[in-house]
Amino acid sequence: MTAPRTVESVSGPAWSVDNCVSVALEKVEHAILAVDCQRRLILFNESAERITGFSRQDLLGLQYDELPFFIDSSSAAVLEALFQDRVESGWRAEKTLLSRDRLPLPVESRLETVRDSGRRIIGAVEIITDLSSIKQLRDEVSRSRTLSALGEMAANVAHEIRNPLGGIGGFAALLERDLDVDDPRRNLVKKIIEGVASLDRIVSNLLIYTRPVKPSLRRIDLAGFVDEVLAFLEVEIENQALPIKVRREYSAERLEAEIDPSLMQQVLLNILQNSLHAMRERGGQLTIGLSRENSGDGARSVRMVVSDEGVGMSEDVQKKIFNPFFTTREDGTGLGLAIAKKMIHEQLGTIAVRSQLGAGTEITILLPHCR
User: Fold this and answer.
1) 54 and 118: one domain?
2) Same structural domain, 240 and 184
3) Which among 210, 244, 271 is the end of a domain?
């Protein structure tokens, strides 16, 4: 029979943790922390190590209020109230921890008392659930609702703008025709026409973003398709004498996906143009990778990765990069990546960005793989 592990307490009775129970707790997906009545940490399971990034060897024996992942003293105050029966066992709350990498970690905490046969409190257990993915999903839903309302309003505004914009462009073209070639006012009229054309592009992109998209899906060999898109890009790199090299990293197997070639071409060109802009001054290597990815549920996807060695983005910029009208470029409209994300979703795919300021950017697209 397995002998229980006993933790002695000066101010109260000993609390025994059976080894079988301890082993079972290691398999739980939630982080489990246990303290004795001296508030010393006596249990820190594997999930707790994974979620916080801290090792149990560094933490066991520490006072609860000394644990490095608590941002403030509120957790210790609640624990103290629990020991004094001023808070009921089963107390729950959402709070933020600080991981070993100094990153904020949203969690739900539940505190339970541990009592002996005489109903005396001899310790406490805290069950911590990582809410990162749930919070991300909540934020995504909230963001989608906001963008949907914004898109509907923007579409109405775009329609109202387009009619007078067309009139301005038409009258400017007539005015340019009536002016002599050497008339200095002709350059001013050209500026008006260029401005109208720029506004018309913004309105057109806005309508593309807000209108429902019905992709015409076809089974396509992605390696051949990407090569065709890269051919346009390589011509531009050569014509502008940009110090950029294009590298292909394709899987040896044939990778097919059902995509709308027209929409996907627009998505790729948008992403690739951003990469060129990020490397325009410093140069570097632009890499396009294609590989197969198998998920845990047996689903198969094609992973398309576009990575550059450009200026990169801060964490704050990465969070906003797919928002409409958000841009870091003076000549940008902020609709390119927003449209790209919408088109990828319409083709049942996902898109994500990972970047580091000064070290480049990697954009990953996952598309359902055709067997």
Assistant:
1) yes
2) no
3) 210
Give the whole-angstrom CA distance, residue 95 versus residue 120.
Answer: 28
Cα distance between residue 282 and residue 244, in whole Å: 9
* Position with higher pLDDT, 208 vs 338: 338
CA-CA distances (angstroms) from residue 238 to 245, 271, 278? 10, 18, 17
Q: Are strands 121-130 and 31-36 parallel, antiparallel or unpaired?
A: antiparallel
The gap from C-alpha 339 to its chain's centroid, in whole angstroms, comes to 16
- Res. 189 pLDDT band, cuts 50 70 90: confident
Q: Which domain holds residue 55?
A: 5-130
Q: The dihedral of CA 80, 84, 90, 94: what is its sign?
A: negative
pLDDT in tens, 208-220: 776 777 788 889 9
Does 7 have pLDDT greater than 50? no
| Alpha-carbon torsion, ordered 20, 23, 28, 34, to 10 deg | 90
Same domain, 156 and 69: no
Residue 13 above 90 pLDDT? no
Domain boundary among 148, 177, 210: 210
Strand partners, 111: 91, 126
Whether pTM exceeds 0.70: no
The verdict on 33 and 115 lying in the same domain is: yes
Question: To which residue do tokens 């387009």 refer?
Answer: 162
Q: Can you tell me whether residue 112 is helix, strand or coil?
A: strand
Q: How many domains does the chain have?
A: 3
**Distance separating alpha carbons of residues 326 and 89, to the nearest angstrom:** 47
| pLDDT, tens digit, 9 for 90 and up, residues 293-315 | 876 555 678 899 999 998 888 88
- Please determine, for residue 252, whether its predicted confidence score (pLDDT) is greater than 60: yes
